[in-house]
C-alpha cells in the first residue's frame, strides 16, 4: 500500500492508514487534552508578562498548604540571590587585587579577604539551596493534598444535575490533573524564582560595574532565550506527533491480540490488513521523527549562530572598552563571569517558565472547577423537615433535564400531582421512559422541579426551601444502577449509613432482610470478602446477588422512605413478585415507607397505593383493585404495555445515553478507574496515556527515543 503523509498543524505526519482507520488523528476527547499545544501559541513577551501571575498562583497554593515552608523557600531563594551578587562583587575584588602592580605574594595577600568572601558566599549559597530544596520537597505533597482535598470536597457536594452535565465533566477531567500540576508548579516556581533572582543579581552587579554592561547582557542572552524556547516548542510538537502515532499503533497491536476480536481476525483474515497498516503507521512515525529532528537541529544551529554573533559583539564591546581605557581589566573579568551566569540563568528561566506555563493551564482549570463546584453545590441549611412526617406531596410538578433536547427541551415530568403517604407501600408503575426514576430522584431531593414548575411538599415544607441534607437523610435509595463499591461485603452494605461505626449485626440483619444472607454464606471470607474482580482476594458475585446486596444497603440505612427502583430488572415476573412480596412483608414490621418502581403492575398488586405514569404524567392512581375495576379505573394500567417483559431488552433512553457519555468522558469513569485514580494521573500533563484505560504506559514529552 502506498503511504502518503501530510504535515501541518493538527495533522502533522498523518498517514493514509490513520485517515482510513480512524478518519484522522487518534486524539482523545477528554478534558485535559484540550490544552494540547496551548502554550505553542505564546511568544517570549507574552510568557514574561504572565510570569508574575503564574508565580502568584503557585505562592498562593503554597501559602494555603504550609505558610512556614513557603517562607523558608522565599527567604532562601532571595538570600541566595543576594549572596550570589555579593560573591560576584567579591570576585571583582579578587581580580582587582590580582591584576594590580606588585609582587605575586603581595597581590595574593591583598586578594585574600575578597577570596574569603567568595568562599563564604559559595558556602552560604549551598546551604541556602539545600534549605530551599528541603522546604520545596515538604511543600509539594502538601500542596497536592490540599488541592486534591479541596476539589474532591467541593465536587462531591454539587447538584446531581452538574454531575450529569458533560461540560462540567470535561472540566472535572482537566481539573483532576490540576491538583498534580499544582504540586509540580511549586518546584517550577522555585526554579523560576531561583533563575530570575540569579539573573537579577548578575544584572545588578553588571550595572554597578559599568552601565554599558547591562545592554550587553541582554544582547547576548536574547538569542539564547529564543533558541531555548523554540527548541522546547519543537520538542513538544515532536512529542505530540509521536504520541499520536504510537497510540494508533498500540491500538492496532491490541486489536490483533484481543480476545474479543480474535474470531473475526481469523475468519475475516483481518490480521494482514491490520499488520500492514501498523507497519505503514510506524514508518510514517519514523519519517515524522526524522523530519522534526532535522528541523530541531536546524533551529539549534541558527540559534547557536545568533548566540555566537551576540557573544562576539559582547566580547568585542568589552575589548573596545578595555582598549579605550573606559574599563579596567578586573571589571572586564568580572563582567565576563556575570554575563555567563546571567545568560545561563536566562536560559533556565525560559525553560522553567515554559513548564510553569503548561502546568498553569491545568491549575487554571482546577480553579475554575472549584469556582463552578461552589456555585453548583447543593445549598446548605434551609427549613427543617417536620419531625413526624405525614406525606410528601407533588403538586403539578414539571421537570426538565438540563441540556436535554436542544433549544426547546421537552419536560420529562409534566404537571405531576401525587402523594406519598408515610408508612405505606406506594408503587410507581409505567412503561420504559415514562419518568418513574426521574420522579423518585425528585422525591429523594436529587433534583428540584423546574422554576415555576409546581412544588414538592414535605407536609408544609417546600422542597425548594427545605434543608436538602435533611431530605437526603430521610431517604434510602436503591436505584436501578446502584453502585457496586469495590469494597468488602460489609462496607458495601454499611456504606448506606457511612457516618456511624459499622455494626456487623445490623449488616447481617440487613442481609437477611434482602436475601443477601445466602450470598454472604457463600463468600470465602464472609463479611470481609472483597467484592471486586481483578484484585487479589476479590470475589465476583452475579447481577442478581448484587441486587440483594443493594437492597440490604438501602435497608441498613434505616431511612424513613425506602425507594426501590426496579431492583428486579434482571428477574422474571414471578421472581420479581416474590422479591416485592418479601419487601412488603418485612416493611409491615418496621412501618417504613416503601416506594417500589416497576413496569409490571401485577408485581405490586399488594401495594397500598399505585401511581401509574405515562409519558411523564400521572395516568391514574389507586389500589390495584381500583385500577383494575372497569368502573373506577381508566383501564390504562390494564393495557399490555404495563405488563411488558423485563426491561433487559430494550434499554431505556437513559440507559442508552450512559455508554455514550462514558465514552465521551474518556477512560477514567469506571469504578475501578476511580479507585485507581492516582495511578491514572500522568506524571505531568504533557504525559499522555498510550491507550485509554492504560494505567501503566505513559509517554513523556521528554521521552527517550524522541531526541
Ligand atoms: N440524566 C438524564 N438526562 C437527560 N434525560 C434523561 C436523564 N435520565 C433520564 N432521562 C430521560 O427521561 C425520560 C424518563 O426517564 P426515566 O429513567 O425517568 O424513566 P423510567 O420510567 O424510569 O424508565 P425505565 O423504566 O426505562 O427506567 C427518558 O426519556 C430518559 O431518556
Q: Any overview of this molecule?
A:
Keywords: ATP-binding, Membrane, Nucleotide-binding, Transmembrane, Transmembrane helix. The chain crosses the membrane at residues 108-128, 185-206. This protein has 707 residues and is an alpha/beta fold. It is built from 21 helices and 14 strands. The protein has helices at residues 16-22, 44-65, 67-98, 104-155, 160-163, 166-209, 213-257, 259-267, 270-323, 329-375, 436-443, 468-473, 489-494, 504-514, 516-521, 543-556, 573-590, 624-628, 653-665, 671-675, 677-680, and strands spanning 5-6, 14-15, 391-399, 413-421, 425-430, 455-458, 461-462, 475-478, 561-565, 593-598, 609-614, 617-622, 688-689, 698-699. The strands form 4 sheets. Strands 8-9-10-5-11-12 form a 6-stranded mixed β-sheet, with helices on both faces. Strand 6 (455-458) and strand 7 form a beta hairpin. It starts with a strand and ends in an 8-residue tail after the last strand. The model is unreliable at 1-11 and 638-707 (pLDDT under 50).
Amino acid at each position: 500500500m502506498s503511504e502518503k503523509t501530510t504535515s501541518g498543524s493538527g495533522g502533522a505526519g498523518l498517514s493514509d492508514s490513520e485517515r482510513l482507520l480512524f478518519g484522522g488523528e487518534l486524539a482523545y476527547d477528554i478534558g485535559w487534552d484540550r490544552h494540547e499545544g496551548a502554550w505553542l501559541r505564546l511568544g517570549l513577551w507574552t510568557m514574561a508578562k504572565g510570569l508574575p501571575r503564574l508565580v502568584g498562583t503557585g505562592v498562593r497554593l503554597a501559602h494555603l498548604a504550609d505558610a512556614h515552608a513557603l517562607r523558608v523557600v522565599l527567604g532562601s531563594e532571595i538570600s541566595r540571590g543576594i549572596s550570589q551578587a555579593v560573591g560576584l562583587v567579591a570576585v571583582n575584588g579578587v581580580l582587582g587585587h590580582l591584576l594590580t602592580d606588585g609582587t605575586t605574594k603581595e597581590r595574593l595577600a591583598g586578594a585574600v579577604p575578597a577570596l574569603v568572601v567568595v568562599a563564604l558566599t559559595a558556602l552560604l549559597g549551598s546551604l541556602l539551596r539545600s534549605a530551599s530544596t528541603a522546604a520545596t520537597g515538604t511543600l509539594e505533597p502538601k500542596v497536592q493534598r490540599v488541592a486534591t482535598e479541596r476539589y474532591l470536597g467541593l465536587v462531591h457536594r454539587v447538584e446531581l444535575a452538574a454531575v450529569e452535565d458533560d461540560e462540567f465533566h470535561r472540566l472535572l477531567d482537566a481539573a483532576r490533573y490540576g491538583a498534580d500540576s499544582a504540586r509540580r508548579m511549586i518546584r517550577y516556581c522555585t526554579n523560576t524564582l531561583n533563575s530570575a533572582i540569579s539573573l537579577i543579581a548578575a544584572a545588578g552587579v553588571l550595572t554597578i560595574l559599568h552601565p554599558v554592561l547591562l545592554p550587553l547582557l541582554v544582547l547576548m542572552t536574547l538569542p539564547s532565550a529564543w533558541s531555548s524556547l523554540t527548541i522546547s516548542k519543537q520538542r513538544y510538537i515532536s512529542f505530540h506527533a509521536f504520541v499520536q502515532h504510537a497510540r494508533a499503533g498500540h491500538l492496532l497491536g491490541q486489536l490483533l491480540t484481543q480476545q474479543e476480536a480474535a474470531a473475526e481476525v481469523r475468519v475475516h483474515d483481518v490480521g494482514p490488513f491490520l499488520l500492514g497498516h501498523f507497519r505503514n503507521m510506524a514508518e510514517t512515525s519514523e519519517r515524522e521523527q526524522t523530519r522534526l529532528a532535522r528541523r530541531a537541529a536546524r533551529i539549534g544551529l541558527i540559534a547557536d549562530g545568533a548566540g555566537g554573533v551576540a557573544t562576539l559583539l559582547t566580547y568585542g564591546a568589552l575589548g573596545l572598552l578595555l582598549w579605550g581605557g573606559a574599563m579596567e581589566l578586573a571589571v572586564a573579568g568580572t563582567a565576563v563571569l556575570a554575563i555567563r551566569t546571567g545568560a545561563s540563568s536566562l536560559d533556565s528561566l525560559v525553560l522553567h517558565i515554559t513548564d510553569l506555563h503548561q502546568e498553569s493551564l491545568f491549575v487554571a482549570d482546577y480553579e475554575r472547577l472549584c469556582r463552578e463546584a461552589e456555585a453548583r453545590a447543593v445549598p446548605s441549611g434551609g427549613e427543617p423537615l417536620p419531625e413526624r412526617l405525614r406525606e410528601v406531596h407533588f403538586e403539578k410538578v414539571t421537570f426538565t433535564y438540563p441540556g436535554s433536547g436542544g433549544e426547546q427541551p421537552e419536560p420529562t415530568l409534566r404537571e405531576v400531582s401525587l402523594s406519598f403517604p408515610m408508612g405505606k407501600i406506594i408503587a410507581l408503575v409505567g412503561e420504559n421512559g415514562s419518568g418513574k426514576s426521574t420522579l423518585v430522584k425528585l422525591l429523594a431531593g436529587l433534583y428540584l422541579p423546574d422554576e415555576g414548575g409546581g412544588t414538592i411538599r414535605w407536609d408544609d415544607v417546600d422542597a425548594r426551601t427545605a434543608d436538602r441534607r435533611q431530605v437526603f437523610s430521610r431517604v434510602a435509595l436503591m436505584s436501578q444502577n446502584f453502585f457496586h463499591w469495590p469494597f468488602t461485603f460489609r462496607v458495601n452494605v454499611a456504606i448506606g449509613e457511612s457516618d456511624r461505626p459499622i455494626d456487623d449485626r445490623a449488616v447481617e440483619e440487613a442481609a437477611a432482610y434482602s436475601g443477601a444472607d445466602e450470598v454472604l454464606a457463600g463468600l470465602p471470607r464472609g463479611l470481609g470478602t472483597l467484592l471486586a474482580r481483578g484484585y487479589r482476594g476479590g470475589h465476583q458475585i452475579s447481577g442478581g446477588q448484587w441486587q440483594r446486596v443493594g437492597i440490604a444497603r438501602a435497608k441498613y440505612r434505616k431511612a424513613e422512605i425506602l425507594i426501590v427502583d426496579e431492583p428486579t430488572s434482571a428477574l422474571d415476573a414471578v421472581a420479581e413478585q416474590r422479591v416485592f412480596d418479601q419487601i412488603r412483608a418485612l416493611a409491615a414490621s418496621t412501618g417504613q415507607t416503601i416506594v417500589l418502581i416497576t413496569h409490571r403492575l401485577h408485581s405490586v398488586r399488594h401495594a397500598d397505593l399505585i401511581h401509574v405514569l405515562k409519558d411523564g404524567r400521572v395516568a391514574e392512581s389507586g389500589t390495584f383493585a381500583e385500577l383494575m375495576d372497569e368502573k373506577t379505573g381508566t383501564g390504562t394500567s390494564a393495557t399490555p404495555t404495563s405488563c411488558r417483559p423485563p426491561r433487559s431488552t430494550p434499554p431505556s433512553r437513559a440507559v442508552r445515553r450512559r455508554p455514550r457519555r462514558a465514552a465521551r468522558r474518556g477512560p477514567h469513569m469506571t469504578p475501578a478507574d476511580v479507585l485507581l485514580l492516582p495511578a491514572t494521573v500522568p506524571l505531568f500533563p504533557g504525559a499522555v496515556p498510550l491507550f485509554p484505560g492504560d494505567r501503566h504506559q505513559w509517554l513523556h514529552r521528554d521521552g527517550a527515543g524522541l531526541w
